[in-house]
């Protein structure tokens, strides 16, 4: 079954973070400070958000103190799009630079 990304709404949380899924099972989180990539499973949509320890070990300095902000924003986006979210220690998050 193909997933139609057009049916999944990008959403802003307090004008700071915009979420958009892309085909590589990645959820792109864009803010004025940078771009972070999170995991979203595509077969049955589900977001896997890193626990705080994984977050701190993986994100750049500008995002280190923003785990709760990103978690809240992602949770709101997931609720709006009826996508489950789980906080786990075995997922990924990384910074994307220059569109790559």
| Topology as a string of helices (H) and strands (E) | EEEEEHHEE
Largest sheet: 7 strands, mixed
Number of strands: 7
Which runs of at least 5 residues are low in confidence (pLDDT < 50)? 1-6
Instruction: Quote the average pLDDT.
Output: 88
Evaluate the radius of gyration: 13 Å
Share of helix among residues?
A: 10-25%
Q: Please report the number of helical segments.
A: 2
Structural class per helix/strand content? alpha+beta
- Roughly how many Å apart are the termini? 27 Å
Q: Percent of residues in beta strands?
A: 25-35%
Tertiary shape:
globular
The domain count comes to 1
Describe the overall structure:
Residues 1-6 have low confidence and may be disordered. The chain has one domain (5-96). The chain contains two helices and seven strands. Strands 1, 2, 3, 4, 5, 6 and 7 form a seven-stranded mixed β-sheet that branches. It is 21% helix and 33% strand.
């Amino acid at each position: 079954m193909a997933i139609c990304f057009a049916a999944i709404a990008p959403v802003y949380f307090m004008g700071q973070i915009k979420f958009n899924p892309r085909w590589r099972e990645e959820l792109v989180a864009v803010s004025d400070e940078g771009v972070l990539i999170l995991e979203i499973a595509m077969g049955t949509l589900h977001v896997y958000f890193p626990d705080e320890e994984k977050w701190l070990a993986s994100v750049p300095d500008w995002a280190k103190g923003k785990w709760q902000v990103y978690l809240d924003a992602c949770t709101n986006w997931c609720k709006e799009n009826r996508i489950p979210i789980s906080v786990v220690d075995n997922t990924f998050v990384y910074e994307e630079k220059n569109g790559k």
